[in-house]
């Protein structure tokens, strides 16, 4: 690496600017930019500004202009070839799904464009997807410019401040990119799991019905079907519901262990643990007796157990006001039993914590349960509420999660990496049920829509197939 830096510093300054700009622009302008090391290039540019080879101001301006130009070309390519993509896949995807995708991108696409700038591979593909989806260029360029300025500026300044530690920073940033990709894959898995749960509100019954299609189970059903029927009649509907709920909670417990394990791997390979000592030292230097006492009271009051009781109370009140509700697993954990997943999460976090069975995954139980509890409260309150109420609920939840996590860091109870993993666990745990609930609501509306459309015509005259 030292030889490479020496060789680069010997090149003419104009060539360095030009080559670096082409690399940064090419990362998004051409599809092969997936293989271009954009982050490493920006870190190298920042290092060259540190040792005087380049000037910081012109380097920042050149890299920002190059990144914006590359994204603009990618956006235009998506806009030009997007209709051809829709024509090729439109008959399989369907116009309704295309319409929902356009509506979703119109509502959330700007923030996605901003976030994509910080994730390798995504910053190459997202501008094309935005162009293909018909996002207005004015909206795209504003969000994209914000992402470019923060990403380019942060990377160049990080390389400048790193100085002689360029090798270490480059290695850690590369590990962080890999961890971010792993987290994105985990988020996709969480969303897919939530969608499946929304389509199958009683997952145990759905899995059993699929298992019943297997040849061995079909043979048992054909041979002992009457016996199974008699046993089911003997058990009764109440005990059957309880058994289904218990089995469903076991499935949720297994899902929680999987999510916690994924987060542990992501955090362990992100390099974030290398900053634990520095962050802990920063908080220790600012700790005073009076502030520590007040923070201790806050942490003692806003605990996971207290928040679980609060969730149970709020959920019971909201469920009583919105009766009746279905008797399946999703309805239970999404209404009066919204506290039950939090109890399951507390057990999962305790088992995967530093003193549990997964000692390599430092997941503080309190932070995980607090994050999930605040998010669950915001979800329950904002569901069906007006926009100002929803914004206030989620803002309060975010402030609560950050406040409790920061307070525990201030007291030295947790590490920065453990706090990040625990908060992510709590948030992702809530996302599963949010996606499941939204999926089932959408499915119910789609099923009811044809009935609503047919009803007005049936009131005015008889349907052709209606018996006389």
Automatic annotation (TrEMBL):
Q: Which residue stretches does the UniProt record annotate as biased composition, category Basic and acidic residues?
A: 458-468
**Compartments where found:** Cell membrane
* Ranges of residues in domain VTT: 36-160
| Sequence intervals crossing the membrane | 14-36, 56-77, 140-161, 173-197, 242-267, 297-320, 329-349, 361-382, 389-411, 417-438
Recorded hits in InterPro entries, A to Z, give: DedA-like, VTT_dom
Q: Which UniProt keywords apply?
A: Cell membrane, Membrane, Transmembrane, Transmembrane helix
Q: Which Pfam families match?
A: VTT_dom (PF09335)
Task: Name a single GO cellular component.
Answer: plasma membrane
Q: How does it sit in the membrane?
A: Multi-pass membrane protein
Family assignment from sequence similarity = Belongs to the DedA family.
**Name the UniProt record assigns to this protein:** Undecaprenyl-diphosphatase
């Amino acid at each position: 690496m030292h030889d490479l830096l020496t060789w680069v510093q010997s090149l003419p300054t104009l060539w360095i600017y030009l080559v670096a700009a082409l690399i940064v622009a090419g990362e998004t302008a051409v599809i092969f930019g997936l293989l271009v090391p954009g982050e490493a290039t920006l870190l190298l540019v920042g290092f060259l500004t540190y040792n005087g080879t380049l000037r910081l101001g012109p380097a920042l301006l050149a890299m920002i202009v190059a990144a914006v130009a590359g994204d603009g070309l990618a956006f235009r390519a998506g806009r030009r070839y997007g209709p051809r993509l829709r024509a090729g896949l439109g008959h399989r995807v369907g116009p309704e799904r295309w319409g929902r995708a356009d509506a979703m991108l119109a509502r959330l696409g700007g923030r996605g464009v901003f976030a994509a700038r910080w994730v390798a591979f995504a910053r190459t593909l997202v501008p094309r997807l935005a162009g293909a989806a018909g996002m207005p260029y004015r909206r795209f360029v504003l969000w994209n410019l914000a992402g470019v300025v923060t990403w380019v500026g942060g990377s160049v300044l990080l390389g400048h401040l790193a100085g002689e530690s360029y090798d270490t920073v480059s290695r850690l940033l590369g590990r962080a990119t890999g961890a971010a990709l792993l987290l994105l894959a985990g988020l996709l898995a969480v969303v897919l799991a939530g969608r499946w749960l929304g389509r199958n509100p009683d997952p145990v019954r759905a899995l059993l019905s699929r298992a019943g299609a297997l040849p061995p189970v079909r043979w048992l059903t054909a041979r002992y079907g009457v016996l199974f029927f008699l046993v089911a009649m003997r058990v009764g509907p109440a005990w059957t519901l309880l058994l289904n709920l218990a089995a469903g909670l076991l499935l949720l417990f297994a899902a929680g262990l999987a999510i916690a394990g994924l987060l542990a791997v992501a955090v362990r390979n992100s390099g974030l643990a290398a900053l634990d000592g520095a962050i802990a030292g920063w908080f220790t230097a600012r700790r005073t007796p009076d502030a520590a006492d007040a923070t201790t009271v806050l942490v003692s009051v806003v605990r996971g157990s207290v928040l679980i009781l609060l969730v149970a109370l709020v959920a019971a009140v909201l469920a009583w006001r919105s009766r009746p509700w279905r008797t399946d697993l999703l309805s239970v954990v999404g209404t009066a039993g919204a506290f039950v997943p939090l109890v399951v999460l507390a057990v999962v976090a305790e088992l995967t914590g530093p003193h549990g069975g997964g000692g390599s995954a430092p997941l503080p139980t309190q932070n995980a349960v607090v994050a999930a509890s605040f998010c669950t409260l915001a979800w329950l309150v904002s569901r069906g509420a007006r926009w100002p109420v929803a914004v206030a609920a989620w803002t309060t939840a975010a402030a609560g999660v950050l406040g409790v996590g920061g307070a525990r860091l201030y007291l030295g109870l947790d590490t920065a990496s453990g706090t990040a993993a625990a908060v992510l666990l709590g948030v992702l745990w809530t996302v599963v049920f949010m996606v499941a609930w939204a999926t089932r609501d959408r499915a119910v509306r789609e099923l009811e829509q044809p009935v609503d459309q047919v009803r007005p015509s049936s009131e005015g005259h008889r349907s052709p197939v209606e018996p006389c």
